Amino acid sequence: MATLLEVVDLATYYATPGATIRAVDGVSFTLAEGEVLGIVGESGCGKSTLGRTVLRLVEPTGGSIRFLGEDITKLDRRAMVRRRRNMQVVFQDPFGSLNPRHRVGEIVVEPLEVHGIGDARSRAARVSELLVLVGLPPDAAGRYPHEFSGGQRQRIAIARALVLEPKLLIADEPVSALDVSIQSQIINLLAELRVRLGLAMLFISHDLSVIRHVSDRIAVMYLGRIVEIASTAEIFDRPTHPYTQALLSAVPHTDPARRRERILLSGEMPDPAKPPSGCAFHTRCRHAMPRCSNERPALAQRPIEGGSREVACYLY
Ligand code: SF4
């Protein structure tokens, strides 16, 4: 598959009184057309900032973003609006992202109007097609967002994101505001749409069990950096970084006979304004060695038993 997105050494820093917060601190990855990369980590690890920076909703401090072979890092606002036709986003809170005074049909058609695509008739047909595709009732176009449940509102947000036939969808915690019973419906919908439409996704979540169902590969983030990246099967069969191991130990195993030992992380995620020296995870790592507090391990292909893994840890 051709490369759709290439992010190299991306950095997003925020200046606060007395400190610089390195929300994204040297992140590199590629995403192929039609591929889903899950990005997982605790709240505050920088995963949402990473998604917003890729879309240039937040300006990068450094590094580069290539999308469809073009460096979009420094495109001006107008050019970026045009490029965003191919890169859309679905946020965590569907209600907050839908204008409550607009009918669903108006909400979903808006991107077509902004980009001047089609006439009134073809736009109406496209909106109807999308509402059916995401599983909303045929009369949804004439109703208001408050008339729908949380899960249905997320379906509306997904319909609006897909109306321009984007190549990349950034799904930022798309199910974490929903009831558990509804979460799997939306995850299944995204998994189905991705196959049907050949959509590539960055699927951002704090929950590995959610990410597992949609992702081809998973990148694990800690304090602004990727600490491990591998296929979903590799991450679940053999988590390598001690942080990945701890996250995974909280996920129930599908095979009860292979239940994992629960690894409780000590302490909270450190303050991103004052990250620990060396390996940022050393303050919570049960394998920390003296060098870990002084030197920072690079994310690199490292030998592991029976193969290799892209991981940032001195154990390998
Ligand atoms: Fe733990 Fe050291 Fe590996 Fe960091 S480099 S994850 S502190 S063992």
Describe the structure.
- The protein is an alpha/beta fold.
- The chain has a single domain (3-311), classed as P-loop containing nucleotide triphosphate hydrolases (Rossmann fold), CATH 3.40.50.300.
- It contains nine helices and twelve strands.
- Helix 3 crosses helix 4 (120-133) and helix 4 packs across helix 5 (150-162).
- The structure holds iron/sulfur cluster (SF4).
- Residues 241-242, 279, 281-282, 285, 287-289, 292, 297, 313-315 line the site of iron/sulfur cluster.
Key traits:
316 residues, alpha/beta, Rossmann fold, 8-stranded mixed β-sheet, 4-stranded antiparallel β-sheet, 9 helices, 12 strands, 28% helix, binds iron/sulfur cluster
CATH class: Alpha Beta
Hetero groups: iron/sulfur cluster
How many separate domains make up the residues? 1
Low-confidence stretches: none
Please name the CATH topology. Answer: Rossmann fold
Class from secondary-structure proportions: alpha/beta
CA radius of gyration: 20 Å
The CATH architecture can be given as: 3-Layer(aba) Sandwich
Strand content: 25-35%
Shape: globular
Helix content: 25-40%
Give the CA-CA distance, first to last residue.
30 Å
